[in-house]
Design brief:
Helices cover about 40% and strands about 20% of the residues. The chain has about 450 residues and is an alpha/beta fold. The strands form 3 sheets. A 6-stranded antiparallel β-sheet has the order 10-15-14-13-12-11. A 5-stranded mixed β-sheet has the order 2-1-3-4-5, sandwiched between helices. α6 runs parallel beside α7.
Length: about 450
């Protein structure tokens, strides 16, 4: 039911304005479905990519691993599934190169557009990882990884101290990778106290505030973008353009070491980028979310945790105890058909005209309308207008709401943040904080639904 396609520009990133509008203007100018085909000599070419491209890409993926010794020397066991997609073509040789012990879910290894073993081949959904988790239980694996069919998003489950496998959210996975990569950039000497402001983490407005806290701790910039990895890619293109033109000739063919040196001297050093919907990037040689890069990065995080005598979940709790507890929840209201589209539009207009003063038991402190307000990011770049509103509430709560661009639904992003006071700075105390935050998000969602249906009447 998803009828769309991606278009990439010459910088390797998805198109943004004005190119997107230019293409749509051409589409809208078509009067009927008849056309004269171009002469054969005027048509573009399809050029198959050979093994040399895979080899160059795999070599660059290996450069994402900042401590290959730790990865190679930990008894880490992984089960991987490509969910009937293309991920195995790169991820299997990648894990081999990294020296990791892994197995694959054979029944999901062959690309098959019918996706016969899952209800939906979406690694965000627990059901999609059922076979991989069952195999991990049999094999005693530490980590389950799955990429979606086109291999740009990655989901994961990790074994906890209780011996059970637990799914991690996109926010949690991204925060673990952001923290680890920031830490290693300082330990390896790429960044230090004198140049740390050059380092940048990029995320979307609807991604966890834990990554803001991580960036602040290390003295990095944390840049927020609209939803859609194309905006993260546009930032990476901007950073490249800040390098003097004579130095960035053949930039894409330079090694990671060479481009890092140029970025450190003339521009910004990209440490990590991601969004809550399971998309991640760790270097600017890929200008889009990339499941292969994500597998390399989370494998290193898991190996590091194991080297410290921790599980991945233990490491996540360590972050919470240090930075405070951040909890997120994604919800949506489905409104199908023409009448549903009208309801969604009515709801968006209602939020804009009369923002809620209170949601559930909590007062709304401030409202931000991304469609009408002039908003700039911390680098001074303008945020394009988009149909999204954000509500800051008391008690560390926040809500963002936007209509989906691909589905007949309106999406809600719920956030809770709790400081960890000294008396709660323990595993037991953190468990209480988690419970309280979950209850707060439950109540917030109940209040949002009641308010939304009232507005739709």
């Amino acid at each position: 039911e998803y009828n769309g396609y991606k278009v990439y520009f010459e910088d390797g990133g998805q198109i943004v304005e004005p190119h997107a509008r230019g293409i749509i203007n051409e589409v809208n100018a078509i009067q009927d479905d008849t056309y004269l085909p171009l002469a054969r000599e005027a048509r573009g070419q399809i050029i198959p990519m050979g093994a040399d491209v895979d080899s160059a890409y795999l070599h660059r993926l290996e450069s994402l691993v900042l401590d290959p010794h730790t990865v190679r020397n930990q008894p880490l066991k992984i089960v991987y599934s490509s969910l009937h997609g293309v991920g195995g073509a790169i991820i299997r040789p990648l894990l081999d190169r990294l020296g990791v012990q892994f197995s694959v879910v054979e029944s999901q290894e062959v690309p098959d557009g019918r996706f016969p073993t899952v209800k939906s081949p979406n690694p965000e959904n627990a059901e999609a990882l059922t076979l991989a988790m069952a195999q991990a239980e049999t094999e005693g694996a530490d980590l389950v990884l799955a990429t979606d069919p086109d291999d740009d998003r990655m989901g994961a489950a990790a074994r906890g101290q209780d011996g059970k496998l637990h799914l991690l959210s996109g926010n949690q996975l991204g925060s673990l990778m952001a923290w680890y990569r920031a830490k290693m950039h300082f330990e390896l000497g790429f960044l230090d106290h004198s140049n740390r402001g050059i380092g940048v983490i990029i995320k979307t407005f609807v991604t966890t505030g834990l990554q803001d806290a991580i960036a602040s701790h290390f003295g990095l910039r944390c840049v927020d973008t609209l939803t859609g990895f194309k905006y993260i890619g546009a930032k990476l293109s901007k950073y490249e353009q800040l390098i003097p033109i004579e130095l960035r000739e053949n930039y894409a063919r330079l090694s990671e070491t060479e481009t890092r040196a140029l970025r450190l001297e003339h521009s910004s050093l990209f440490v990590f980028g991601g969004e809550e919907s399971y998309g991640y990037s760790g270097a600017d040689f890929v200008r889009d979310k990339d499941g292969n890069s994500a597998v390399a990065m989370i494998t290193e995080v898991a190996a590091y945790a194991k080297s410290q005598g921790l599980t991945v979940l233990d490491l996540l709790d360590e972050l919470y105890l240090h930075f405070g507890y951040f909890s997120e929840r994604g919800e949506s209201l489905v409104m199908e058909g023409a009448s549903g589209a009208g309801q969604i539009q009515k709801l968006v207009e209602s939020y804009a005209a009369t923002p809620p003063a209170k949601i559930g038991a909590h007062q709304v402190i401030s409202t931000r309308n991304f469609a009408t307000e002039k908003i700039t990011d911390i680098e001074g770049d303008s945020i394009p207008a988009e149909s999204m509103l954000s509500f800051e509430l008391e008690a560390g709560l926040r809500v963002a709401v936007r209509p989906s661009g691909t589905e007949p639904k309106i999406k809600y992003y719920l956030f809770a943040h709790s400081e960890i006071t000294p008396e709660l700075k323990s595993r037991e105390g953190l468990a209480e904080v988690k419970k309280t935050a979950a209850q707060a998000l439950d109540a917030l969602w109940t209040g949002l639904q009641a308010d939304a249906w009232m507005r739709c009447k």
